[in-house]
Design a protein that fits this description.
Elements: H1 2-5, E1 7-8, E2 11-12, H2 13-28, H3 31-38, H4 52-82, H5 91-117, H6 151-157, H7 159-163, H8 170-190, H9 196-218
Antiparallel strand pairs: 1-2
Helix pairs in contact: 2-9, 4-5, 4-6, 4-8, 5-6, 5-9, 6-8, 6-9, 8-9
Amino acid sequence: MYFLTKKYLNIHGIIWLLFFALSLLFILEPQLDIYVTNLFYDGSSFPLDKTLFERIFYHSVRVMTAFMILYYLLSLIYYTFTKKTFFSISKKVLLYIFLVYSIAPGLIVNSLLKENWGRARPAEIVQFGGTREFTPAFILSNQKGNSFSSGHVASAFSVLGFVLLAKRRKKLYMSLALSYGVAVSFARIIAGGHFLSDALTSFFLVWIFSHIFYKLIFKKESTL
């Protein structure tokens, strides 16, 4: 019980335990990814790909990311020239937002994992009409794919970082942020763009690093 309640770098032990347990599960039972993806494959294609739901949540991530980058840059420029906060956005908050959006989704997921892991996407493997081989999550591959892990899902769940900054209605904002991240994850899975393990890995990476940055910058424990 001590391990489950102790915090390591502002992360409850149970979060680390869940992440490692799920990682081990997908390594030992890689066919779980195939099973979940097969639920949305009709034998020749992914019929839910390009549907309104899938398109809305797929493109919403780019819109949201562009908005956040613009908001961040405007805040930074305003502070640089006026030395005043923009809508109460302090220097610490600006730094926190920059790290939440750039490190987990940008550096770790998109640059380190996606560009180097080599895992083929579901729609690219033989089981789902492609030509490449399936490889388990967390296992380096030579398939030259960009499936592991999901950049869209990581960006979507980055909204969770803002929930830590909320002073009121944290449970409501947490529910909304999680719902959005789950919707984007589902949209990527039903389109054959990512496996379940890709989405879950992105979620845990964003969750963990958001809490670590919160502790390092604000010098206090998060309440979520």
